[in-house]
Design brief:
This protein is mostly helical and 155 residues long. The protein has a single domain, classed as Four Helix Bundle (Hemerythrin (Met), subunit A). Helix content is 82%, strand content 0%. The chain has five helices and no strands. Helix 1 runs antiparallel to helix 2, helix 1 runs antiparallel to helix 4 and helix 2 runs antiparallel to helix 3.
Length: 155
């Protein structure tokens, strides 16, 4: 029989993934809120929010690619096609983040930045939903001795 502490440890990875996704969704909302008051004004706060969001989302995906996905591939070979799709998404999102960063560094208008954030948000949401639908079952029973912030990012 599994004790309460052991059970909590066993289900932590699915909860950690959901929590990381919610925090990244919140970070995107904060970045978008910087554009709500004046879509043409690009303020220092907006730059900070957008750059913070980019760093957080990137760290989340790097952690999954380096720490979580190799473990899942080894323990659940049937998930290899799913993981390949998720890694492909990560590559596309990385490209979109680079485009947003370029727009920020180039001094693009708030309207242009909003388009970047909207596109990223749509892709990110689709990716998160697919990831949760396909991986949560495997994560419920995953025994992995790792720091969740290393796997899912510091947010």
């Amino acid at each position: 029989m599994v004790g309460e502490n052991e059970r909590a440890r066993l289900i932590a990875w699915d909860a950690e993934l959901r929590t990381a996704h919610e925090r990244l969704r919140a970070a995107l909302r904060v970045a978008r809120s910087g554009l709500e008051a004046d879509p043409e004004a690009v303020t220092r706060d907006l730059l900070l929010y957008c750059q913070g969001f980019c760093v957080a989302l990137s760290a989340h995906h790097v952690g999954e690619d380096a720490g979580l996905f190799p473990e899942l591939r080894g323990r659940h070979p049937e998930l290899r096609p799913v993981i390949a799709k998720l890694e492909q998404d990560h590559s596309m999102i990385s490209h979109l983040l680079a485009q947003l960063d370029h727009a920020l560094q180039s001094g693009e208008s708030g309207v242009v930045l909003r388009r970047h954030l909207d596109g990223l948000g749509a892709i990110m949401e689709s990716h998160f939903r697919f990831e949760e639908r396909e991986l949560l079952g495997a994560l419920e029973a995953l025994e992995l001795d790792a720091d969740p912030t290393r796997i899912f990012g510091p947010l």
